[in-house]
Input
Amino acid sequence: MNLGLIGLGNLGMPIGKNLLAAGHTLFVHDLRREAAAKLEAAGAIWAASPRALAEQVETVITVLPSPASVRAVVFGDDGILAGLKPGSSWIDSSTNDAGDIERYAALCAEKGIGMVESPVTGGIPKAHSGTITALVGAEPDVFAKNLPVIQVYAGDILHLGPPGSASVAKVITNMLAFIHLWALGEGLMLGRQAGLSVGPLFEAIRASCGDSFVAATEGPEILNGSYDYGFTLALASKDANLAYELGRKYGVPLEMGGLVEQILLRARRKYGDDAWSTQVVKMLEDDLGSDLRAEGYDTPRIER
Output
C-alpha cells in the first residue's frame, strides 16, 4: 500500500520503521525535515506538505503531540482533508480530545473518508518492536478495513467503540500512569530517608502488591539517573489536563488526577517542556537533597 505518516518523533519514527519493514511505500512529513532523515535513509519519501502527502496515499497516519497540532495538519488548503480522496482513510494515533475526534469523524464521513482514532500506549520500546498497544475508536466497518495497517505497528489492538472512545480510554490510562509514577517516587524516597538501600527496596516493590507497569518500565530510568523514557513533561501535562477536563465535563471528582496534574505542571516549570516526564520524581530529590540512585539499573539505550 501507499501510506502516509505525519509526525516523526519518538513514536512516529518507530511506527514508520515498522511500516517500511512490512514492505509498504511510505510518504512522510514533519515540521522538521531532519526528523525524516532515518526513515528517508530506509526508503521513505518526503512530502512537502500534509496535502501533498495525502494526495499520494490510500491511508494517512498521524502521530502528533497535541490536539492543536492535529488541527493544524488536518485543516486548511494544505491539510490532509484537502488531499485525501473518497474511499481513503485517516488513522490518528495521537492522544487527542474526544470531542474533536467525534467532529473529525463526522466531517470525514461526509467526504467519504474513513476515520480511525488509534492512540497508542505501552512505551517507546514496544513502539520499536511493533508490539505497542493500540486503543481504537471507529465504526466497525472502518475498523475492519484499517486493521491490517494497524497490525503492522501494534500488538494488542483494542476496539473500544465509536470515534471518541479511544481518546477517553487513553487519557484515563495516562492519568493512572502519572499517578503511579509520582507514588513510586514517594515510596522510594520514603525508604531512602528511612535508611534503606534503594535497589533492594525497588526489588521489594516489584515483588509486591505495590508493583505496576510504571515501576517496571520507568523505575530503572529513575534509579540510573537518566530519566530517559522518551516522553516529555509538556506532553504529560497536556494529557493530565485532558483527563482533568473530562472529569469536569462528566462531574467526576478526580482528586488524585487533579493533584498529579498540578505536580506535573510544577515539574514542567522547573525543568522545562522538553524534560522527560520521569523527571517529576527528581523534584523529590531536589527538595530533600537526596538522590535515588542504585547500582545495576543501567538500561540499554534504544536506537531512535
